Structure formats: structure tokens, C-alpha cells
Amino acid sequence: MFLEGDLTTAPIPEFPAGFRWGVSTSAYQIEGATTVDGRGPSIWDTFAHDPGRIADGSTGDQACDHYHRYAEDTALLAGLGVSAYRFSIAWPRIQPAGTGPANAVGLDFYDRLVDGLLAAGVDPVATLFHWDLPQALEDAGGWLNRDTAARFAEYADLTAARLGDRVKLWITLNEPFIHMSLGHGMGEHAPGRTLLFDAFPVAHHQLLGHGLAVAALRARSTSPVAIANNYSPVRLAGDTDADRAAAAAYDALHNRLFTDPLLGRGYLDALGPDPAVVRDGDLDVIAAPIDVLGVNYYNPTGIRAPEAGSPLPFEIVPLDGYPRTAFDWPVAPDGLRELLLLLHERYGDALPPIQVTESGCAYDDAPDADGRVHDPERIAYLDGHIRAVREAMAGGVPVTGYFVWSLLDNWEWAEGFTKRFGLVHVDFDTQRRTPKSSYTWFRDLVRR
């Protein structure tokens, strides 16, 4: 366990002027109001209401009630002093069935949120897809269906037509690798499919949707466009040729499947292309230039060769010798520095500026007898990871922003309300917000 004394005593090195400090959230995890103002059901509504899917049996029906409390949360952002707030827009709030004209009342909510952020001096950073696909599109095949990519571009157009004059950075997709692997490969997330490597069409159609959405956004807005993916440096848990081959296979899947085609390299032969899925011209659409690459980092992954008969070409194993979060993830700040340097080395001049769009940790923090929430472990985590970013920048990596996950304790997908990532504690019974000691620490860092 981290203690206050674990923090490095030296001050964090200065960051360049204009470096973007922010925090992140996502719609289904905080908004609630899932049946308000014409919002349609998403795959996460369906998944969460399926008994046995969520660790504590909860749903996102209310979550943090941000839909009704966004003004209070905007005040927390203003008090934190961040320059940007990354939120996601709920596709089923804009197009309840995933097609057709925009639901004006749903867009009104984001109008109010964006205007409130700007009035508070906070740049709105909008993610279009953070996993909450309209259920009607899933019923038609979801991301396995090529048509979903076209529907995503249509949704991007409708959203940018209303908000494109004020959103300061657009992010098309959040963590398409995680949505493919946990949602369609392993069945741990919505929509709960267990396709393993047959989930490749989900990867390609998300990327195709991204490329089509880039064009739609640029037609409506002059703001920069990005995509945010999850990355994890691979740590070899063995010293055989088979172990090294397993590590290369995992790195190709987790770290290259989405980034190689985005940056013009196409798919590795081992991962595609499937001529039944990848059509002529698709790779050009996918490689449309982006202004920022969003990097979400939480931990490295231990890999060794699989047992005989395994359906996967690798085995994920725990990494020893690290402190652990409440999610049992290893705390490895140096993995973020390693990852950023790897991306810089791998893609060279093709790599756009990077913003770390998620970085955070879950701990079991709660108010003490005086109502205060002390979370020294989270402070130590952020201290280490922010230092790692600065070290990567000193090594030549073009990093221009860092967003903490998350502003609020929220509904944490398949874990329900059992994992707390926030700088602000939320009592999910009363919806009372209590800034933690990490909120104060990050506020002071941003001010400096």
C-alpha cells in the first residue's frame, strides 16, 4: 500500500506553456437518466439488466445522475482548474434507434453542458463513442455489420452540426481494442459476444467508422480530431522463443491492430486483411490524417507462451513485484514512459501529437469520521505517471496533454459500483460529491 511518504520529494518538472491538463468521464458511467428526453436503449442498458453480468447487480440507470447535476460537476471542474474536460456523448441520446434525424432534446443537454464548460473556462473535449451503441443497431449486427460504420458517420455529422462551433477537440472512438476484445471476443462487456479472433470485423468496422467520422467532423468543425485507444507495453514472463513469439503476438493485437492502419501502415499480415471484410479503399479512409493520438494507459501486461491446446497464441499472467490497485492492476508508471517512447520509435514522423486521454487508478477510499476522503495511493499514482510523461517528453515524444481518469467515482462497467477511480468521491445513495485529497493535489499541480 502507498503511504504519503512514498511520494517523491522533488517537485514535478515544469511542463510547457499550453500543455493541456484535464479529467475524463463517459456518458453511460455518469449520466443516468437513461429513459429521459427520448434517449433510446444502448447495449449497456441491455447488458447491465441481464442478471449475472454485473459484479454487484447494479445498472447505469442513475449512475452519478450527471444529467441532472452537470452544473454541480462543472463547478467541480472549475474548482479543479483544469483546462479541459473530456466527456462522451451518448449516441442513443442523439439517435435513439441509431439512425434518422437527431433528437433535438438530447442534443440540448450537450448544448447546456458545452456552454457551461466554456463559461467556466474549460475546453470541451467530446468523445463520440464510448461503447454505448444503440441497441437497435446491435440488433442489426452491431459492429459486425459494415453498415454501422456509415451510421456512425451520420451520427458524427448530426452532433458536429450542433456542437462543432464550440467543442475544442473531437475524439471519434474510445478504446476500440477494449470494446472489441472484452465486448466481442471474451464476452465480459456489452454486447457479451465470445468470438475470440472472429471479432476482427468489429475492429475493421470501428476503424472504418472512425475514418468516415473524421471526414464528417471536418466538414462541420474546424476543431482538431483524434481517436483514443488503450495501450499496454508487454512484459515478457519467460525466456524461450515461444514466449517471445507470444509477446509479439499480443503486442500486435493490443498495440498495433488499430494504430498501424490509422497511421497508414495497413494491417499486419497475421491480423488481416480478410478480403470479405476489408474492401478496396477502406485503408485510405481509415488513414485519414488525425491531429492527436489519444493514449489511454493503466498498466503493462505480462505474457508467456500458452499451454498446448489454448485457443489464443499467448497467455496473460500476473506481474509480480508491483503495488496493486483495487482492480488488482500493477502500478507501473515506468510503463507509461516506455509506451510513449515505443510509439515514438515505432511510428516516427507519422505519429501525431499525443495526449494521454486516460490515466488513473481504483482504490477503496471512503469518507473518514470527519467526512474527508484521503487517498494517498492515488496521489502517488498520479505523481509517478505525470513524471513518466515528462520523462518521455524529454526523450522527444510529442505529448501535449494529460487527462486523469476520472473526475468522479462512477459506474465501472462490469464491476458496477465496486471500483472507485474518481478525484471526487460520490455517495451513490445520496449523490453527494466530496473532493478527495487527490483533487486538491491535482488542483495545486495544475495551478503551478
UniProtKB/TrEMBL annotation:
PROSITE patterns documented for this protein: GLYCOSYL_HYDROL_F1_2
Keyword Flavoprotein: no
Pfam families (alphabetical): Glyco_hydro_1 (PF00232)
GO molecular function: beta-galactosidase activity
The enzyme's E.C. designation: 3.2.1.21
InterPro entries hit by this protein: GH, GH_1_N_CS, Glyco_hydro_1, Glyco_hydro_1_beta-glucosidase
Enzyme class: hydrolase
Keywords (A to Z) from UniProt: Carbohydrate metabolism, Cellulose degradation, Glycosidase, Hydrolase, Polysaccharide degradation
Gene3D superfamilies per the UniProt record, alphabetical: Glycosidases
Catalysed reaction equations from the record: Hydrolysis of terminal, non-reducing beta-D-glucosyl residues with release of beta-D-glucose
TM annotation in the entry: none
The keyword Transport appears for this protein: no
Family: Belongs to the glycosyl hydrolase 1 family.
Full protein name: Beta-glucosidase
Source organism: Micromonospora aurantiaca
